[in-house]
Amino acid sequence: MTDRSRRPAGSGSAVDASELARQFEQLLRTRRLNTLQERSRSRTSSPMPSSSTPASPSPHHPHHHSQHAHGRPLPSQPPSYSSIRSFPIFPTPPQDSASLKFRNLLHVLSVTPMKYENPGLLDEALSHVPLDRLYAEAEEECQILQAEAASMGENVKPTWGYQDCVIKALLRWIHVDACEEAWDNPRLYTEGWNRRMAYCIAFSIDGATDVTRRYVRNPAKHGLDRSRAPDEVLLWVIHEIRRMRRENLSKEERRRLVKEDEREERELRGYVAQSIATELSRLNPNGVSAPAPGDEVKVPVSAAATTTGQSGVERTGQPNPDPSRRHR
What we know:
mainly alpha; C8orf32 fold; two-stranded antiparallel ribbon; about 45% helix; globular
């Protein structure tokens, strides 16, 4: 494309982000248009054997084409359109046997956290969590919020209390590998061991979440085909498990869990955006590959536990201070 030959304004080493974004959007439009045109040509070229017949008009031709149109077997489901990934997916109940089998497997696995009751092991796990630092940071943040509320008036209450500040750091799934002594390092398997993964589903007593995007940051390099079931079916099964686990909870608890799910979904989407930005940052308009800043992100990931320490093995992040419910 001619747009690639344009150099961004500014110094020779600086890169205009807006120009790169515009070029990337134009490239996506061109690829989608080419894909749609190829599909259109493939569909129109499928009844080519009729073109080899003589061109003389025949009264049977309209009847022949109508038979071809009506006799064509209708597909059981629409094509996957794997090259167009920007459309949202909607939960769809499983229909085929493979999807039903995958649904049953997820339901069986979701029961495991319900049976996991070992207070001694949980206390041992808590001994490895930097609780003192978390409590100190929560106390400091609480004092800042109290001072902010006091500056706004006498009857103004702070937005967050001390317990809220502690809880804020415990609102996401955490990766723990006891065999490798790894804590909050989900990219250990893909980028560290060069393993390929298709699914990574996290379960708790409150539901389930597809956290594959946290483990597989580059699906083209480290991802496997998600062929067990369509993503729409997987989303439907996850919502089904959540409904089953939360049906006896109060409205306030369900509302809190929904907000937690939305917050984690934004975080997982951020990983996808970060991966795309990393790939774009490697592109240099001058034709020279730039150093990959994404490789430097692996270090802060393991160090992220120092800022978002957790208190559980499967799902740390229980805003309920009740010790009986913190092992999720």
